[in-house]
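Q: I'm building a small set of examples for a reading group on sequence design. Run inverse folding on the following structure and report the sequence directly after it, with nothing in between.
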């Protein structure tokens, strides 16, 4: 915010210096009352329709579940590939014992297998981290669902209090004052 000016409190817009788009002219600032009014209006609209929030929470949860399933598939493939490396190493060791390959060849094959294992372990570690992050995200989604369950009646109470703002009963006074502060 740039402070008081002859035209009131304003927010400075950085788009004037960062990019220019002829279809959206910018004078470098916007009225704080105008910007804040639009923001609070949008917030109020969203809060009065908790189904929109619940729908987005549901989409986020479904997306996280899909990601989780994909990561579990990738971990399973990684484990299968690790088992394949173990079997391959055993076959090369058996080939060496049977004198089909020499020691230098065995060392070369073991080195290649060790490189693949190292890559697979790093990949699996990354997948485990992703899986933990998705688990945390799902915990947050569940917490948000709980907030929404509690919030829906509170929004209805807010709306009721706001609609009857001229009647300041004890049960609505805090809500009316909160809405009045938002309207300023």
């Amino acid at each position: 915010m740039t402070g008081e000016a002859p035209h009131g409190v304003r927010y400075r817009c950085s788009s004037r210096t960062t990019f220019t788009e002829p279809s959206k002219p910018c004078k470098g600032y916007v009225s704080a009352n105008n910007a804040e009014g639009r923001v609070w209006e949008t917030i109020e609209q969203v809060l009065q329709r908790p189904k929109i929030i619940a729908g987005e929470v549901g989409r986020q949860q479904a997306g996280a579940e899909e990601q989780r399933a994909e990561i579990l598939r990738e971990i399973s493939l990684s484990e299968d590939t690790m088992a394949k490396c173990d079997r391959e190493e055993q076959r090369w060791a058996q080939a060496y014992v049977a004198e089909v390959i020499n020691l230098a060849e065995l060392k070369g094959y073991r080195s290649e297998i060790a490189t693949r294992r190292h890559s697979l372990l790093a990949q699996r570690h990354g997948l485990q981290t992703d899986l933990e992050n998705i688990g945390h995200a799902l915990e947050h989604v569940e917490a948000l669902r709980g907030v929404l369950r509690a919030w829906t009646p509170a929004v209805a109470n807010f709306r009721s209090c706001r609609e009857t703002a001229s009647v300041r009963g004890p049960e609505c006074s805090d809500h009316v004052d909160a809405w009045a502060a938002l309207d300023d």
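The chain has a mean pLDDT of 78.
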